UniProtKB/TrEMBL annotation:
InterPro entries: Trm112, Trm112-like. It comes from Kwoniella newhampshirensis. Belongs to the TRM112 family. Pfam families: Trm112p. It comes from the Eukaryota. Interacts with TRM9. This is Multifunctional methyltransferase subunit TRM112. Transmembrane segments: none annotated. GO terms for biological process: rRNA (guanine-N7)-methylation; tRNA methylation. GO terms for molecular function: protein heterodimerization activity.
């Protein structure tokens, strides 16, 4: 399943695609909300690994506006819960992720993104 915690680490790897290759843009998505056990300590420890702007922009593109525009210096419990929801409970089941730089489309089927590239697309 493509959760936003995973999406926040995915970039386009098409040969010579180095500009605007992160974050990949979702389109034609089927979004499913699946409750997940809260582990706010994990979410808090994961904060430094996040690209906050990319996360907020992606969440908003999927209809979630609960995260503040800029990452708070210190997260409240309610903010950590909102972040948990965005990272762990929002699942993209079907759709596409498209690179803004080169336009390559990575399809998502049954919650699994196809990140494989054709031989001519692979950078060496």
């Amino acid at each position: 399943m493509v959760r936003l915690i995973t999406h926040n680490m995915l970039a386009c790897h098409v040969k010579n695609c180095t500009k605007d290759n992160f974050p990949l843009a979702f389109s034609d998505v089927e979004l499913v909300i699946r409750p997940a056990p809260e582990n706010l300590e994990f979410i808090n420890r994961f904060l430094p690994k996040l690209d906050w702007k990319a996360l907020v922009d992606t969440a908003r593109s999927l209809g979630d506006t609960t995260l503040p525009e800029t990452m708070p210096e210190s997260m409240t419990e309610d903010q950590l819960r909102a972040l948990h929801h965005v990272l762990m409970e929002m699942h993209v089941e079907e759709g596409n992720m498209t690179c803004r730089g080169c336009g390559h489309v990575y399809p998502i089927s049954n919650g699994i993104p196809n990140m494989l590239l054709a031989e001519h697309e692979v950078g060496r």
